[in-house]
Design goal:
By secondary structure, the protein is α/β, with parallel strands linked by helices. 41% of the residues lie in helices and 13% in strands. The protein contains 7 helices and 7 strands; from the N terminus they run βαβαβαβαααβαββ. It has helices spanning 16-25, 41-53, 68-74, 87-98, 104-110, 119-136, 155-162; strands at residues 6-8, 30-31, 58-59, 79-83, 144-147, 172-175, 178-181. The protein has a 5-stranded parallel sheet with strand order 2-3-1-4-5, with helices on both faces. A two-stranded antiparallel ribbon has the order 6-7. Helix 4 (87-98) packs across helix 6 (119-136).
Length: 184
C-alpha cells in the first residue's frame, strides 16, 4: 500500500526546511519551493503543484501552504502539518531573512513583496493562514498535525502522526542554510 502524501502547510520561517529534512530522513521524497519569482505564480501555482506531486510524496515551503484546500481535494487521505512559531519571532525572522527584497510569490501571498515596512500586513496574513488551516481541519484532527519546531517539537510529535518509528538520530534543525544533527 502506498503511504499518504504529506503536505507541510506552515509559512516560511516556521521550520519548513527542518520538517522537509525530517521527512527525508523518514524516507519521503520531498519537494520544496518553486515559482518564487514567476511573474504569474498565482495563475500557474496549482497546475505546477499537481505536476510536481506526481514525482514526490512530501512537500514544504511556498506555494504549498497556499494550496492546502486544493491539495486536500486532489489527494484524499493526505496528511497535513502546520508548522507554527510565535508571530513576533516569526516576523523578526522574516524581516531579517528577506528584508526589502521583493518576490512575486510574496506579493501574491501577502499583497506586499517585501516584509520590511509591511510587518503588520505580513503578521495579519500569517495569523489568518494559521486560523484558516486549523478551521478547515477542525473536524478532521487525525489529518492535521500542528508542530512548533522552534519550541522543540520533533520526532515525538511527527512519527506517531505518520505511523512511523522514531529514528535513532536527533530531529534535524535547519537554520540559515545549515543542517544541525542533534544525535546523541
Amino acid at each position: 500500500m502506498c503511504r499518504p502524501k504529506v503536505f507541510a502547510v506552515g509559512f516560511h520561517k516556521t521550520g519548513t526546511k527542518s520538517i522537509g529534512a525530517a521527512l527525508a530522513v523518514l524516507g519521503y521524497r520531498v519537494a520544496g519551493q518553486f515559482g518564487v519569482n514567476h511573474p504569474r505564480i498565482s495563475e500557474i501555482a496549482l497546475a505546477e503543484a499537481l505536476k510536481r506531486a506526481k514525482h514526490f510524496d512530501a512537500f514544504q515551503d511556498n506555494p504549498w501552504p497556499i494550496l492546502f484546500r486544493q491539495l486536500d481535494s486532489q489527494f484524499p487521505g493526505s496528511r497535513f502539518i502546520l508548522t507554527l512559531r510565535p508571530s513576533d519571532s516569526w516576523i523578526e525572522s522574516v524581516v531579517r531573512h528577506f528584508g526589502t527584497r521583493s518576490t512575486t510569490m510574496r506579493e501574491w501571498i501577502y499583497g506586499a513583496g517585501s516584509p520590511r515596512g509591511s510587518e503588520q500586513i505580513y503578521i495579519e496574513r500569517y495569523q489568518q493562514h494559521n486560523r484558516e488551516v486549523r478551521n478547515y481541519f477542525r473536524d478532521r484532527p487525525g489529518d492535521l498535525l500542528t508542530m512548533r519546531i522552534t519550541e522543540g517539537n520533533g520526532w515525538e510529535a511527527l512519527c506517531p502522526f505518520l505511523g512511523m518509528n522514531i529514528p535513532a538520530r536527533g530531529f534535524p534543525h535547519v537554520n540559515a542554510g545549515r543542517v544541525q544533527d542533534n544525535s546523541v
